[in-house]
Amino acid sequence: MKNIQLVSAIMTTKIVKLKKGDDLERAEYLFKKHKIRHIPVVEGKSIIGMLSYTDLLRISFVDAVDDDGEIESLVYNMFTIEQVMAKNIVSVSSTTSIKEVAQILAKKEFHALPVVDDGELVGMVTTTDLINFLIIHL
């Protein structure tokens, strides 16, 4: 019988988070500072949404990007985190197998999954985490 590896072995537990009251400028700052592409939006310990860097790019307009590729804050003032974030979140538990996580990410159009145990956000797993796992184990 194969040893089933759990997502808890590869998930990130140092999670960068946003609150729904945060502004989009803070979100952009966190994306760039931590070199990440997905940030869960939380209320207390529960996840209520997911914001991706692509979500920010979607709301920006071509003329709202300056010569350095920075998104002008004027665009950010038009929207709230809650308006831009994805609300129908697919999540997994820390006891989900890595194979199941890979299957979910392969079928869906997103590249990160929150890991939730008993209603509490405990980690994040991304396609990059899966690729790094494969590099080590192949």
UniProtKB/TrEMBL annotation:
InterPro entries, sorted: CBS_dom (IPR000644), CBS_dom_sf (IPR046342), Diverse_CBS-Domain (IPR051257)
Xref: Pfam families: CBS
Residues passing through the membrane, by range: none
Keyword Chloroplast: no
Entry protein name: CBS domain-containing protein
Native organism: Gelidibacter gilvus
Keywords: CBS domain
The CBS domain, residue ranges: 11-67, 85-138
